[in-house]
Design a protein that fits this description.
This protein has five helices and two strands. It is mostly helical and about 120 residues long.
Length: about 120
């Protein structure tokens, strides 16, 4: 379900948060379905359980999951989460456009590149 990239410069907990957010937003993890336990996911990924707990805390803070005392963590999806994620993506895109302009790449060229897809120059 979750594959970590050890070459990624982001901390492992951020990668876990990102992967679960994507799975939830795509509907792979259904609303109110139970999340893997901290311990079982830590064993599966061969990482410290504290890393999983930190990721779950962040997911709960941002509204992607909720905790039921003594029962575990559950998916808490609603359409508002999709809009939040959409806003984050547009913020990243705006930052990328500003960075591209600093290197002399016009917005029109960026738009053309996006429309064409991942073609090699």
């Amino acid at each position: 379900m979750i594959i970590l990239d050890y070459r990624d410069t982001r901390p492992l907990y951020e990668q876990i948060v990102d992967k679960f957010q994507t799975l939830i937003l795509k509907g792979v993890l259904e609303p109110n379905s139970r999340m893997p336990s901290v311990r079982s996911l830590a064993v599966e990924l061969s990482i410290n359980p504290n890393t999983i707990q930190r990721a779950y805390s962040e997911l709960e803070r941002t509204g992607f999951i909720y905790t039921v005392k003594g029962r575990g963590n559950f998916v808490a999806y609603d359409e508002g989460l999709r809009e939040v994620r959409r806003g984050e993506i547009f913020q990243k895109l705006d930052a990328l456009a500003r960075e591209a302009e600093e290197f002399g790449i016009a917005r029109q060229e960026l738009c053309r590149r996006i429309q064409e897809g991942e073609k090699d120059d």
